[in-house]
Amino acid sequence: MVEHRFAGGDAERLKRFADELARSRVDVIVATATPAAQAAQRATSTVPIVFWAVVDPVGAGLVASLSRPGANITGLSLVSADLAGKRLELLQGLIPKLTRVGVLHNSSNASNALQLKEITAATRQRGVEMRAFDVRTRAAIEQAIGDAAQAPAQAILALDDQLIFAERKRIAELAGKHALASMFGLKDFVEAGGLMSYGANGADQLRRVSLYLDRIFKGARPGDLPVEQPTSFELVINAKTARSLGLTIPADLLLRADAVLQ
Q1: By the 8 A CB rule, do 5 and 17 touch?
Q2: How many CA within 13 A on the CB side of residue 32?
Q3: Which of 51, 105, 97 is nearest to 78 (CA)?
């Protein structure tokens, strides 16, 4: 039997759900993204935990090292922070005269601090003006995108976060409403109407979670199983969204894309 909990980016609900699962003595807890993994880690030191979609498991204090996680936890990293420069480069490939970008981040998500640091460095290196918007509620997301448009930004770049992910459809709608290009880390955002994504294949990561579960059920200790990092990344473009924004996707970008949604 599978017990499922979805907190929608709410920290208090995450804590409550993690505590509930720990008390119910489940065989293993699967945690999606950094806040959920941290909540599970705080809730139990005995129930095995497998995380995925975590940006920096060492920096977030989840594991001692990638090769030897230690304790009762292991999983898969997104290494999203290292991809900030690449995402900005791809945006500039679509908008050669990109000069201003708004960045959506959630300060209550520990992993967003590292991502924000990386994207700040990337924008400085590439001569792009950046304005960061701290979004911890749905209302804050709506306000941030409106403010970004008035800045005026030409695009928004959303960091990897559970609340931002939960609001992906609304973010795509608002970006379109304000004529903003958008870049994300997961294909799910593009499927929801966002313009582009570049990052690890989320579906593949989720499939690989099952391999960890199989090994744990066969007796392996989570702390002895190395954290896996993605070795390949996918570029996904929404051609319909590009057309609605009046953007022409360059031929070289189309060739590099792993998927173009029509």
Answers
A1: yes
A2: 17
A3: 51
Query: What is the separation of C-alpha 259 from the centre of its chain, rounded to a whole number of angstroms?
Result: 19
Taking the model in full, what pTM does it have?
Answer: 0.85
209-220 burial code (b ≥16 CB/10 A, e <16):
beebeebbeeee
Provide the token pair at 145. Answer: 């995108």
Would you say 201 and 240 are in contact if contact means Cβ atoms under 8 Å apart?
no
What's the pLDDT tens digit per position in 168-204?
Answer: 999 999 999 999 999 999 999 999 999 999 998 878 8
Rounded to whole angstroms, the Cα distance separating 194 from 240 reads 10
Instruction: Kindly provide the b/e burial profile for residues 95-129, where b requires at least 16 CB atoms within 10 angstroms of the residue's own CB.
Output: beebeebbbbbbebbbbbbbbbebbeebbeeeebe
Question: For 203-260, how does the pLDDT look when each residue is reduced to its tens digit (9 = 90+)?
Answer: 888 889 999 999 999 999 999 999 999 888 999 999 999 999 999 999 999 999 999 9
Can you read off the two tokens belonging to residue 235?
């570029």
Which residue in 250, 200, 229, 226 sits closest to 94, CA to CA?
A: 250
Q: By percentage, how much of the chain surpasses pLDDT 70?
A: 98
Residues in CB range of 212: below 8 A, 6 or more apart: 50, 74, 75, 76, 222, 225
What is d(CA 250, CA 8) in angstroms, rounded to the nearest whole number?
36
Which residues neighbour 147 within 8 Å (Cβ) at sequence distance 6 or greater? 102, 133
Whether the bond into 222 is cis, omega within 30 of 0: no
H or E element that contains 54: strand 49-54
- In the chain, DSSP finds a helix count (H) and a strand count (E) of 11, 10
